Amino acid sequence: MKGTFPIEKFKTVATPFYYYDTELLRTTLNRIKEATKNDDHFHVHYAIKANANKKVLRIISAMGFGADCVSGGEIKAAIEAGFAPEKIVYAGVGKSDWEINLGLEVGIDYFNVESIAELEVINELAAQKGLTARVSFRINPNVGAHTHANITTGLAENKFGIAMEDMEKVIETAASLNHVEFIGLHFHIGSQILEMGDFVALCNRINELQEQLERHHIKVQNINVGGGLGIDYQHPNEVPVPDFEAYFQTYRKHLSLRPGQQLHFELGRAVVGQCGSLITRILYVKQATYKQFAIVDAGMTDLIRPALYQAFHCIENLSSENKKETYDVVGPICESSDVFVKAYDLNKCHRGDLLAIRSAGAYGEIMASQYNCRELPTGYTSEDFI
Hints:
The chain is of the alpha/beta class. The protein is built from eleven helices and 17 strands.
């Protein structure tokens, strides 16, 4: 089973490029809305780090979602795309002064703070402007996730967050400062998580921490559980939209929210992952001693996930219906790791065939580089081909 693409129109466009199915994107966003329609205290922020394509951002902002930013540049992108400042949250282990000042100036909702040192700088910069910055503390829950080691963020040895044993200390420090207001706790245990049990473990840990704080008469307005929900890379056509109902139901069932508490989510990959494909053209079919290669014009500069994470992406030959043969699909970059997949069955490949590397809407275009002096890939939406 192949995806649906405007192949004839693709033939006139220079490759490689990213293609975003905006109908699928809107369907995904509507599924999120449907899954949370009865939960006024649920607030979903799109994690811009997954994909900052301007057209994609405008569609998400137009449907009323908030934004999760991890840099000043992402705050700018969010504002330019129409996200309401009061729906923007800003996280990151290393916020520069100009980035903090930008957040203060545009009036974002709150900062997810990751250290006392950062808290003190935010207080100082807010004081200079005569403002009070709302802050939520990112607590490291020491909860593991069944995912790749490079995208696990909730363990004690990770660089992110504040240790649980320091939680009360940082809250007390905030109370002693005149230009910050403590409003919540923030957690994030990793990315590409498909086992709901990982989120149950997070809920259990948050419940414990809330009880601990309440014993010291500390109340929390907001709980932010980050994102992390994964997509089905193996079956992009059969499972184009993640199971949002199961995801949100996990938190309804297992997280003990207090009356009036607001629950924030920061979904990225689950929103945009399946709507994007990297379209590339075969340059050569090379027969080696023991295998054959499909050498394409896209490389690790355009989609680094396979090289960086050993990530799998389905690949479809859009130009061929011939019997399948086995290939290593590789790029032109002068690195041995510039390989998309090995020993992969594709419809018989020829020079000039168009391939679609699927499930590339998240951490694809946004992570592209100009290594080897290559141009950055262009991003198109399905609306560009009407």
